[in-house]
Amino acid sequence: MTNRPFLLIDNTKTIDHPKEEMNYDSYKGIKITKRKDNRWQARFSANGERKYIYGATQKDCYENLKQIFEIKQIKIEKTTTFYDYWNYWYSHYKEPFYKKRTLHNYTSVFNNQIKPNFPDKNIKNITPLEINLFISNLKDTRMKEFTCQYLREVFKQAYRDKKIKYDFWEEIRKYHHKRKEGTALSIEQRRTIIKKAENTIYDIFIFYLFTGCRPQEGLLVKVSDFENEMMHVPGTKTAGSDRWIPIFKPIIKIYEKYKNLNTETLFGISDTTLKRRLADFKKICGFNFKTKDLRTTFATMCAEKGIAPRIIAKWLGHTTTNTTNKYYIKVLDNFEKEQIKLLDTNFDTTKKE
Q: Does residue 267 belong to any structural domain of this protein?
């Protein structure tokens, strides 16, 4: 038998051989491997998504894994309250895996909706009727959707963790907030934006038009995010929204203009400044639009040129094409356009029989 060091991961005791270094090649079956850039990496799945943990050394990577998977368990007692379990659920299943903006949604719902309106009682005594009544009394439909979604997740996991005996998460009523769809700008409006913004401080809107970035993503892009004809977009929603997209021709000129400004980000402006510039630029263009509309227009331009939906979804940072097709692509296919022409001729009063 090979005499090699090992660690029992049940937190009872550590067995080590004094004259040998501990082997950190895996943790709970998760392999720790060395990358080509000399960093160490561990790969695993959580909540249906593939996750990566990195470290400068194998031991660093091992300790990072331990930090995620060995958060101290809360004691399961008769007096375990809903708030206690929420904090446990958040720190175990959300905080290690999601971006700051998404985590803010969870904490906002808890602090502004749940704590002021839902009692901190023994989690085992909570019923689906209580939860449904609580959600139905919330006024904002968007908050209803978020609160419903998070509570369903919490109680589904509570059952899996054996914190409650009854799996009732499906009995929590679903709510759906109707989101406002972005508007794709017409070809003439696109030309106006390009003409009016070129070589001015408003060229950031050309950037949004030809990258499809979310407003916050565009403000976070750095000079170092441009590499080998590709641009890294620092996603602000999920891990999937962090992506690389091609650098289209209109972006090259903008990059050359801003790359030597010596600012932390490419454009070096705040969200407030962006909103102020948008208000001024709309007056210059002579029509109303939102920064989000430029993202929708980018998707539409891609579709008009026949780019595959899965590629458009990838460039927008969507995990599937469903959201892309439903909210972002506003284009009529050629067949549909031809059918419209057939009907339009019936309304042409100038046409001679």
A: yes
Interior/surface letters 299-338, b for 16+ CB within 10 angstroms, e for the rest: bbbbbeeeeebeebbbbbbbeebeebeebbbbeeeeeeee
Q: How many domains does the chain have?
A: 3
Q: What is the pTM of this model?
A: 0.52
CA distance 189 to 184: 10
pLDDT digits (tens, 9 = 90+) for 166-210: 898 889 988 876 666 678 898 899 999 999 999 999 999 999 999
d(CA 216, CA 348): 47
Q: How far is CA 66 from CA 33, 44, 266, in A?
A: 16, 13, 36
Euclidean distance between CA atoms 236 and 150, whole angstroms: 19
Check whether residue 53 and residue 167 sit in a common domain.
no
Nearest one of 297, 320, 295 to 309, comparing CA atoms? 320
